[in-house]
Design brief:
By secondary structure, the chain is an alpha+beta fold. Helix content is 53%, strand content 15%. It has seven helices and four strands, in the order E-H-E-H-H-H-H-H-E-H-E. It has helices at residues 11-24, 38-43, 51-54, 57-82, 92-114, 125-129, 142-155, and strands at 2-8, 31-34, 133-139, 160-166. A four-stranded antiparallel β-sheet has the order 2-3-1-4. Helix 1 (11-24) crosses helix 7 and helix 4 (57-82) packs antiparallel against helix 5 (92-114). The protein is elongated and about 75 Å long. The two termini are 13 Å apart.
């Protein structure tokens, strides 16, 4: 998936972009709008970004779960191998410690991530804090991305392209 980033100064411009994307065949669920405040974006019936998109909760939670599972596996394996209470522990100790630490890691990662801005959006926060709107459009194919770029060049010169990401995923 490719994500295209555009910055524009007015909510009217964002609404016009949304309408034109719909005509182009890009449904409204493929466009996300980040503004200084989400209220006006929501009232304009646009797809405002959510906490899942604004913050690092997905990325940090995923990494926390991954490292937690690895740590839990190591701890469980060590307990089974060492027999700390003088008796053989079952393999279920490894499974339980892996699952427990994975959940705990995901929780800790989520706590950290919810308080951190999304690293994908870091280059654009200054524009958003200055009152502009960041329009993000997800395209599944290169053909779809070119269609969006062509439409934006022809109909929305007020919006400037500020970047794009190939292979976008909230987990990385």
């Amino acid at each position: 998936m490719k994500r295209l980033y555009y910055v524009t100064g007015t909510l009217d411009s964002v609404q016009n972009i949304s309408r034109d994307l719909d005509v182009t065949g890009i449904d409204e669920g493929r466009m996300h709008v980040l503004g200084k405040e989400s209220g006006p974006v929501i009232r304009a019936q646009l797809h405002a970004t959510t906490i899942w998109e604004d913050t690092e909760i997905m990325h940090a939670g995923f990494l926390g779960a991954l490292f937690g599972a690895l740590g839990g596996f190591i701890i469980g394996s060590a307990l089974v191998a060492m027999e700390p209470w003088g008796q053989q522990l079952a393999l279920s100790v490894v499974i339980f410690s892996t699952l427990f630490c994975m959940c705990f890691g995901a929780w800790l990662g989520g706590i950290y991530g919810i308080s951190s801005r999304n690293h994908h959006l870091e280059p654009y926060w200054k524009d958003v804090e200055n009152g502009n709107y960041l329009v993000m459009v997800d395209a599944d194919t290169e053909v779809q991305a070119r269609r969006v770029e062509r439409m934006m060049e022809q109909r929305h010169r007020e919006a400037r392209e500020v970047g794009h990401e190939d292979g976008f995923s909230p987990f990385n």
